[in-house]
Batch of 2 targets.
Target 1
Amino acid sequence: MTEISKRGDRSPVPAEWAYAPAPESRDIVQLQERYGVYVGGKWLEPAETYETVSPATEEALAQVGQAGEADVLHAVDAARDAFENGWSSLPGSERAKYLFRIARILQERSREFAVLESLNGGKPIKESRDVDLPLAAAHFFYYAGWADKLEYAFPNRKPRPVGVAGQIIPWNFPLLMLAWKVAPALAAGNTVVLKPAETTPLTALLFCDVIRQAELPPGVVNIITGDGRTGAALVDAAVDKIAFTGSTEVGKAIQRRLAGTGKKLTLELGGKAANIIFDDAALDQAVEGIVNGIYFNQGHVCCAGSRLFVQESIAEPVVEKLKRRMATLRVGDPLDKNTDVGAINSRAQLDKIEELVASGRDEGAEVYQPTCRLPERGYWFVPTVFTNVAQSYRIAQEEIFGPVLSVLTFRTPEEAVEKANNTPYGLSAGVWTEKGSRILWMAERLRAGVVWANTYNRFDPASPFGGYKESGFGREGGLHGLEPYLAFDGAETFGG
Ligand code: NAI
Ligand code: MG
């Protein structure tokens, strides 16, 4: 800190930046004690239930269903029935009306959803309020617009719906991943059985009330909660397509399971993205981009910029600026409007982060963590940066999925590309430079589904998203995102 004042920086970091607490009220959320599974437009009592908690306090929020095989088969039957008896033959313009309604209701109820998302998942309210909810509504609006234009989107290919889609989603963006999956499926004329992640079922269960309000015909969307066993039963059920977002390990298992069955599959899996800073980049903006890239949503982001590549000549000032910026991050109560970094989603995820961070120390990397006071209960991890990282270290190779950044350096653009691509993943990358030609040169060579230039973690429903290599296949978002939910005459391909 003394160094900073010596340099006479225009924005020195005050030692104590006192904020008054600014908690968002929980009152808008009406939790039930116990939730069933939502099948055929009705709430059914599942055989078993489990407790879902708030990761920030470990407080129990509700009992939710652990759907068994019978529940899964029942949900798939309901979806099949709805597909065959009305939904798939409805004109696109009629399907669009439902999607527009859902989008508007999500906007109307956005505060309620944002509070519930932060309560059940631990993410800061300013992110659920300003990112998750607006984007979820935007996806429904966007795909509502395509529902009656499929013939124009795919001219001369006679698009038709695939049938029943089984959708399995993770816990890092619970409602947003639901929107990414449900909106294109319905726009294309399919029906859906969706399974939220076991730690974050509550916004998906609240979404059932949106479906009711929108008067969506029964069985078009069915929501079954439960853990990996429920997901595995859904993969094996009589669905026509599986869409999965989650770990590479489970993605591989699903792909093996489906090989030869003729079911379509899309996988959106892990990542270890390179965020690459050249010496001509606007450094203050780049530092904001680094922070957003790795500390947004506690680093629980498949496209997180978890490997920072800095050009050697600017490594020192960049790391120094970054550390100063990290000291201003406010870690704590997800429902406080000033919070930048919330709770780690689960005990299991915290264990994984702690284990990988310990491996980084053991392998010889240098660790920096700003001082901050963490709440006594709940699952927390201080934003962390590792320097002195070798390419071979686990923290440079494996997905940590937490607020932990590994800094590496490079000298030439060629070296940056080679190091950036040296990973089994290929989901996203970031490039920071003033030179447009260099951005294009890099984007051509980086093996990543998304390459952001002078920005990071920017999303738009019109823009396709998805990976290379072990990050999966298939695209979500945009026109590309409709394709996996459509069948075309004479073109049945596994893997969509
Ligand atoms: P996971 O892949 O086990 O869970 C994701 C979803 O798949 C959940 O809904 C889960 O219930 C379901 N699932 C689990 N086993 C299944 C199976 N055999 N068949 C069908 N569905 C199954 O991920 P997990 O254990 O929550 O996290 C482990 C790691 O995976 C994280 O630390 C992170 O590195 C990565 N991950 C990546 C995500 C991404 O967005 N790409 C999202 C979540 C986790
Ligand atoms: Mg798992």
Target 2
Amino acid sequence: MSQPIVIAVDGTAASGKGTLAKKLAKHFGFPHLDSGALYRLTALAVLEAGGNPANAADAVKAAKTIDFTRAADPAIRTDAVGAAASKVAAVAGVRAALFDFQRDFVERPPGGATGAVVDGRDIGTVICPDATAKLFVDAAPAVRAHRRWLELKGMGIERDERALEAELVARDAQDRARAVSPLKQAADAALLDTSNLGIDAAFAAALALVEPKVRGQLEAKPRG
Ligand code: CDP
């Protein structure tokens, strides 16, 4: 059997990587894994249990018991859970507990698909260093804050846009500074700055970067 195709989409908070990853998945007919949901579910579990997200024991215990069927729960999408997710994500034991789930997803994509799309912070660097195609998505902080403001407004949550921007910047700084699996562009990832691109233009740009790599793997002689 040839290796599954893996499209790794990493990037900063609210950069649009999730939207792009979903659209790429739909285009190629692959399942999509939002790895951030794993950290958000872990954070929510810690908060619901009355624990401290920065406490390694609390965070690891939560990571081992998360219920992935709750990934669509809007409760994990709040900025408070996002901030707590960034805290649990810095705990090495949490990342170790979530590693196998992510590797299984790309090695045996659900539904017998021939590939998978995963978005996150360390997909191209740590989870799938051999990914077929790697994108690193970024945008100016003010643009990202506006997108997140609109997203939260759509969920009925009113936030101050400047305060959101400060939170996103602080979370990125925390994600970049951590010792384990920090947020960073893989050496072989293509940078996609979506500051001046709407969804359709960003998707067209992403596809132009990813499609040749996918074609290259499909045309290569199957290994083994
Ligand atoms: O949607 P947004 O970009 O705000 O965040 P997310 O992708 O849902 O991730 C929430 C937090 O989880 C991030 O700030 C990271 O600290 C952490 N995370 C991570 O460490 N590694 C991943 N592969 C995905 C998320």
